[in-house]
Amino acid sequence: MAKELIKCPECGAEFELSQAISHDIENAVAKKYQQKIKDIEEKAQNEVKEKESESEKKLREERVKYEIKEKELKEQMESAQK
């Protein structure tokens, strides 16, 4: 079976048709999966940011509760001392 050759219009180099097709397929698949990887990374980063935000909110809430409790205890101590 004779190998079909293609000539590059830019540089004039000749290569097999099967190589050209394989190259195009490889590029298409690589591009597709690179986009999927990028999407997954973005999703993961968003989830991390969301969890950090939730953690910071919980921390602020706990800090407020602590400060209220601390104030109550100080008032109780002052009342007990009187």
Task: Summarize the structure in words.
By secondary structure, this protein is mainly alpha-helical. It has a domain at 40-82. The chain is 79% helix and 7% strand. It has 1 helix and 2 strands. The chain has one helix spanning 17-81; strands spanning 5-7, 14-16. It has a two-stranded antiparallel sheet with strand order 1-2. The radius of gyration is 33 Å and the shape is rod-shaped. It starts with a strand and ends with a helix.
Task: Summarize the topology.
Elements: E1 5-7, E2 14-16, H1 17-81
Antiparallel strand pairs: 1-2
Task: Give the tally of β-strands.
Answer: 2
Shape label = rod-shaped
Helical content band:
over 70%
The helix/strand class is mainly alpha
The protein's oligomeric status is single chain
Low-confidence stretches: none
Distance between the termini: 107 Å
Alpha plus pi helix count: 1
Q: What is the H/E string? A: EEH
Mean pLDDT: 91
Descriptive key words:
82 residues; mainly alpha; two-stranded antiparallel ribbon
Concise account of the structure shown:
With 82 residues, the chain is mostly helical. It is built from one helix and two strands; from the N terminus they run ββα.
